[in-house]
Amino acid sequence: MALSLKKGEQISLAKTSGTTLTAVRMGVGWEGIKKKGLLGFGAGREAVDLDANALMFDASGTLVDQVWFRQLQSKDGSVRHSGDNRTGDGAGDDETITIHLNRLPQNVVTVILSVNNYSGQSFNRIETAYCRLINEQGEKELARYELAGQGDHNGLIMASLKREGTDWTFKAIGAPASGRTYHDNLPDMRAHL
Fold first, then answer.
1. Which end of the chain is less congested by CB atoms within 10 angstroms, N or C?
2. 68 and 52 in contact (C-beta within 8 Å)?
3. CATH number of 74's domain
């Protein structure tokens, strides 16, 4: 059974899973925006292009590497993106990022997970979106964060993974940001390192 986290809540991944985790997967899912038609014509869904990002930082807050739709794998191969979904069509996770915690370079102490709406609509128009963290061993969902925040922002700093010795903690952040790519959100991420 997954934990449902709210903004600011955090969990120890080792304690939650019962064992030391070696790999986790962040899944992001969403649906397109419902369009209302006139007399039944023109109804449907407007495509939404949300993009999942994993940004790796060292202890000094320097961006070491990034995984996003233009770089689907980290330089050392420890983090992989499933590929860019530009519509949100289909059930389940629309984009995933797999993080092999035991293979991350030792200088990486924080991984920030974020989402940007490349198509530009604000999150107050998106009705259904979530982020979840899954233990790759056994496919057990460890945490789920519903992206129910309303606002005129089109980016969201969703969560962080922080190294604490041999353990990692997962913190639901849910901080609004603006911009079509993670580059626009880097200044806002500094507060969460």
1. N
2. yes
3. 2.60.60.30
Tokens of 159: 């969560």
User: How far, CA to CA in Å, does 73 sit from each of 19, 35, 54, 62, 183?
Assistant: 26, 35, 10, 19, 17
Chain segment 145-188, per-residue pLDDT in tens:
776 556 788 888 888 999 988 888 888 888 888 889 999 999 99
Q: Supply the Cα-derived Rg of the chain in whole angstroms.
A: 16
Q: Residue 147 and residue 49: Cα distance in Å, rounded?
A: 15
Tell me which residue has tokens 């609004």. 176
* Domain ranges, residue 54: 3-31+43-192
- Residues of the chain scoring pLDDT < 50: 1
